[in-house]
Amino acid sequence: MSREEFQKLVLQGIPSELPSPKAYDTEINHAPKRKEILTKEQKKLALKNALRYFDKKHHEVLAKEFLDELEKYGRIYMYRFRPEYKIYSRSIDEFPAKSIHAAAIMLMLSNNLDHAVAQHPHELITYGGNGAVFQNWAQYLLTMKYLAEMTDEQTLVLYSGHPMGLFPSHKEAPRVIVTNGMMIPNYSKPDDWERFNALGVTQYGQMTAGSFMYIGPQGIVHGTTITVLNAGRKISKSGEGLEGKLFVTSGLGGMSGAQPKAANIAGVVSITAEVNPKAAYKRQEQGWVDEVITDVDKAIDAALDYCKKGIAHSIAYLGNIVELWERLEQRNVLVHLGSDQTSLHNPWAGGYYPIGLSYEESNKMMAQKPEEFKKYVQESLRRQVTAINKLADKGMYFFDYGNAFLLESSRAGADIMKSEGKFKYPSYVQDIMGPMCFDYGFGPFRWVCTSSKPKDLDLTDKIAMDVLEEIAQTAPIEITQQMRDNIRWIREAKTNKLVVGSQARILYADCEGRTKIATAFNKAVKDKKLSAPVVLGRDHHDVSGTDSPFRETSNIYDGSQFTADMAIQNVIGDSFRGATWVSIHNGGGVGWGEVINGGFGMVLDGSEDADRRLRMMLHWDVNNGIARRSWARNKEAIFAIKREMERTPNLKVTIPNVADDSIIDKLF
Ligand SMILES: NC(=O)c1ccc[n+]([C@@H]2O[C@H](COP(=O)([O-])OP(=O)(O)OC[C@H]3O[C@@H](n4cnc5c(N)ncnc54)[C@H](O)[C@@H]3O)[C@@H](O)[C@H]2O)c1
Q: How far, in Å, from the CA of 496 to the mean position of ligand 1?
């Protein structure tokens, strides 16, 4: 399709004449049927809600069709309205736009729906089984049209994927404000998501799906590499590396698919169990996992062989993780590192496939007999934990990888609690990411080259590496390991072939690193060394973006881990300090109702305005979280915020006075 035709279709928005119905494409990965939750009256409401997007003359036809979708799939996706053109991150100048910032947003959201990137592209799900960009295709079409038409004096307002409209604002305001799944707190249980999402009034945006900031599995390869490397350092007895050691985990989906690649980069042998053949073979084709083995013993034998040779190698075991854990235990294999990345934030609707049911049987049962399915899941989790416990007794270091594994296992009654009411195993944030990264302000800073040219990405890699190397020369000892890991990462990034979808890169940097890298990018755009603007962003999984007591804020111990002030303050603060778009979500990562998380996108167009905005906004975006972590008495954060105050005279943060435990203890 020519550029003109594409642009015409974008500007058309929702077509006035009905496009022909689309066949259900069985070649691609689809979201499982969602459970039947609406009453008859609520179904009527869902249809009425969906029809709001269309001219009355089409209601008769569409009402019938949408009811059919609702009954077959549990949601109204409006498949017929899927556009004819391919959705992907084209070069920015291909998108029709009056605002270059709006065009960059179109590029980013298109990347989230690219078939090479998205988990269930026809259901507009990017990752995590239910991480949605939009609820239906009408919302997509209308949003693209608004973005194409808007000027820099307007702001587009998105309510859980629904474009409420363009509202007059001003040049300094964000171009888009995204809220996803914001609920009255008492209506934030998993079934509330099922019901209100089926009604078409809310959605689960995960972290980066509904904020258009997903950059494929690369985003998580980096975090996973750092996590595995540091987990390796934790189990290292005499400074040895991960050579010849074994890492066992599960999941080759949207984010979890990064694990084998990260394991290879970290130099460890890995087995990742995956029940869905489409997911496993997709990762193999993309080169993210070295081989797929369908027999559990053969998978273990192959891994042990690589361990013996000391060669990093990644194996996908096509089968259930519980079967793998139990077999490893029966064979008395020494597993060094263990984790899990099934989607347990979404345990009853396709996030976790229990042992004892085939993949197909599970998909059927979760929709038709949800209560029975729940029992299978809980029994499976109990068996999984039993095997993990035995292997941990033999020396395995097991950690929760932010997927609510410990939480759901405890709810299932698995033997996962220590006597004093705490989990037996740490979350990776408690042990690794929190004290080593977030408390110092290091987090998943990322960027996308909107020219979509690999050449531009190469130059940004070089710029970022030069900046980090310079900072490293004078960095204090507390952060030299982090600097070293990231310099190595960026140096090897191109060779590791990490790009899937947009020309994007991620690395962990602190406030100083992020600001200096962004400033250098903006200058390179201004000097035309980069051929188009760069979009800056980050995962919500960061120092300030996310309040999540079982993950990002699990290393906050003053009780405030159950509050969400930080994430809300963050997104409000970013929005008036220059973000191009901001987003705030309920539920990313560990599940609906369990977390509030937010993020931003910022277009660096080479202007002086961009230079001012990036300095002001990035400073807040990182230091808000450090200040909060410091107030929670985290010593690394106290160090970091004091250092920042020395650098920034205008910054005045309240520092905690740490009471001596003995003064308090003697009162009890
Ligand atoms: N800690 C982090 O930084 C981090 C990052 C990303 C994701 N997560 C969490 O990890 C989870 C996975 O994310 P995702 O995007 O990969 O989700 P996903 O749904 O795309 O992938 C999960 C995969 O697990 C497979 N699976 C489910 N049950 C299984 C079983 N019993 N045995 C083997 N395979 C099984 C599924 O088929 C699926 O492919 C989510 O809960 C997410 O929130 C954590």
A: 22
C-alpha span between 599 and 589 (Å, rounded): 14
Q: How many CB atoms lie within 10 A of CB 563?
A: 15
C-alpha distances in Å from residue 589, one per residue of 127, 165, 279, 443, 499: 10, 29, 19, 16, 22
- Identify the pLDDT of residue 469: 97
pLDDT digits (tens, 9 = 90+) for 502-528: 999 999 999 999 999 999 999 999 999
347, two tokens: 């345990």
**What is the Å distance from ligand 1's center to 402 Cα?**
10
- Three-state DSSP state, 277: helix
Q: Tell me if 200 sits within 8 A of 135, measured CB to CB.
A: yes
345 lines ligand 1 (CB under 6 A): yes
Which of 161-165, 415-419, 527-531, 563-567 shows the lowest mean pLDDT across its residues? 415-419
Closest CA to 499 of 454, 550, 460, 462: 454
Task: Give CA torsion, residues 266, 271, 277, 278, to 10 deg.
Answer: -10
Q: What are residue 317's DSSP bridge partners?
A: 273, 293
φ and ψ of 188, to 5 deg: -125, 35
CA distance 347 to 373: 10
Which range, of 164-168, 405-409, 419-423, averages the lowest pLDDT? 419-423
pTM of structure: 0.88
**Which numbered atom of ligand 1 lies nearest the CA of 279?**
39
Please give the distance, rounded to the nearest whole angstrom, from the Cα atom of residue 621 to the centre of ligand 1: 28
Among candidate residues 2, 492, 590, the one with its CA nearest the CA of residue 255: 590
Residue-wise pLDDT for 295-340, tens only, equals 999 999 999 999 999 999 999 999 999 999 999 999 999 999 999 9
